[in-house]
Structures are given as C-alpha cells and as structure tokens.
Please model this.
Amino acid sequence: MELTGLFFYFVSFLTMAGIYAVICLALNIQWGFGGLFNAGIAGFYAIGAYSAAIITSTAASNNVGGLQQPIFVGMAVAAVIAGLVGWGIARLCVSLKSDYLAMATIGIAEIIRLVIVNEEWLTNGSLGVSNIPRPFEGMFKGQTAEIVFVLFVWIIVLLTYFISQRLHKSPWGRVLRAIRDNEDAAESIGKDTHSFRTQTFVIGAIFMALAGALSAHYFKYFSPDATEPILITFLAWVMLIAGGSGNNKGAIAGALIVWAIWSMTEILTGFLPSEWATRSSYMRMLLIGLFLQFVLQRYRSGLLPERAPKLDKLRRS
Model:
C-alpha cells in the first residue's frame, strides 16, 4: 500500500508539473524568444480554465455553462478566446518597454480576476464551476483514470515543446530573437517588430490558456482561488529563470525541479511543530527564493542556458 501511495503521489506530481511545464513553455515563447515581460500569466490561465469549464461542464443553474461539449472542443474554445484577448492586449500594450509591459499585464490579469469573482451569472463567482469532466472519463475509472490523465497532460507538453522548438529554429524565431536583442537594428532592415511581438504574445497566451484548461479538467472544479498570482505567475517565472530562459528543455526542467521543491516541502511541513506549521507557506517561499538565488549565482543563465541553433541546421531550415 505504501508503494502504491508513493506511485500515485508521483502521478499527481507529474500531472501538476506537466501543467506548469506548458505554462513555462508558453512564457518562454514570450520572454525567452521575444523579450516580452508578461506578468499577467494568471489571467490567461484563468481564461482557459473557465472557458473549458463552461463549455464542457454539466448543466448549471447559477451560471452560464452546462453545454456538455467534448473536451477537445472546450480546449479549442479556450485557446481561441485567449488568443483573441491576447491579440487585443498586445495591440495596446506590446510596444511598451519591459517594466511598463509588466505593470500593464498585472493590471489586466487583476481585471480578469475581478470579472471572474463579480460576474456570478458567468462564472458562479467565488463558488466556482464544478462537474468538469476529464478526458476519457467514460472509459477509465479510479486509479486508472489518474494514469490516463497524466499521459494526456504529457502528450500536450510534448506537442507544446515540439511546436515551440519548431518556432525557435524557424526564420520567424530568428527574427524574433533579433528583435529581442536589438529592436532598432531589426527595424532598420525592414522587420515589422510590432507585428512579430503581437504574434509572440498571442501564441504564448494560447498555450497558457491550454494549461488552465488542463488544470480545470484535472481538479474537475475551478474557482478564483486557483488563479492566485503567487501560484501561477510567480512560480512560472521562477521555473523559467531557474531552468533557463530561451531554452525549451530548460523550461520543462525548471517546472519539474521547482514544483518538486514546492510540493515536497508541503509534505515535510506536516512533521513540524504546530507553531511552525502555521508559517509553512512562508517557509516554502523562502526555500524557493533560496533555490533561485543558488541557481543564479552558480548558473547566471539558468541550469540549461539558451543555445542558438547550429549553422548547418539554420541553412536547412
């Protein structure tokens, strides 16, 4: 029984780490490739989660939803809505410098959170949306369903990684890195920097929404508490910086390592005295901060730093 419990803890760990890996890959497209400082990750994550929940959940009397559409339809709708919202935000904010863009995206994410909390007719407010189905729920039950879902999550991770790698090695990706490194030089040779940056922001927003949809289907319930910036935006940035900004493998590695620290320390706090257990969340944040400090002092560009594609590969592309 102990081995079974450890195995399914590992399954749960891989599920959440995979969801964070999708967020990190999305952030890597925006920041690692394009230099766009998006501090509103939680907003797009929430859009994806609520869109998928409303489209796929069973009948609801307190909010819009209960459409009972297939899960893949819900994920597609979530991606489209996040892409449209991302396009609108990018048209307004993408030309801002990194610090101003960060402030703008934080504000937009907060607006999205307030809409979710206050528009009860749409999202059921603070009570959240329940009865969200999982993929292949009718075919698998119990512990088998947990294993099937973690495989489903990691298929999405691999697809996201493949798309991100193709973008990184493509001419589009090379132009994007040129804009990131020297926007004036890129403009001087005729590149439409605003268009490229808008495309980058939209692509990242779509994958962040897919991660939110996966989270909603995993928990089968979603509420505003799950969109706290410290759980989504802060952790995603730590994961990417520690793993290696600009490197897709580093984004996945950072998600696995940081989520391991975050989740395993939660277990260890159960062994602390009661007066310390109440401060466990602060201790976990301290450990995450110490880990990030250690990585940045030893590896300034992260554990797996960015590497430009080799010249022969560039010629073939």
